[in-house]
Amino acid sequence: MNQTELLRFLEEIGARPKKRLSQNFLIDGNIVRKIVQLAEVQPGDQVLEIGPGPGALTEELLARGASVLAVEKDPLFARHLERFQTPDKRLEVHCDDILRYELPHTRYKVVANLPYHITTPILEKLFECPFHSITIMIQKEVADRIRAKPSTKEFGSLTLFLQFYSTLHSSFTVSASCFYPRPSVDSTVLRLNSRPLPDIDPNQLFPLIRKAYQQRRKTLVSSLRSLYPNLSSTLEALHLSTKARPEELTLEQWISLAHLLQM
Ligand code: SAM
Question: By Cβ atoms counted within 10 A, which residue in 51, 65, 79, 141 is the most buried?
Answer without folding.
Answer: 51
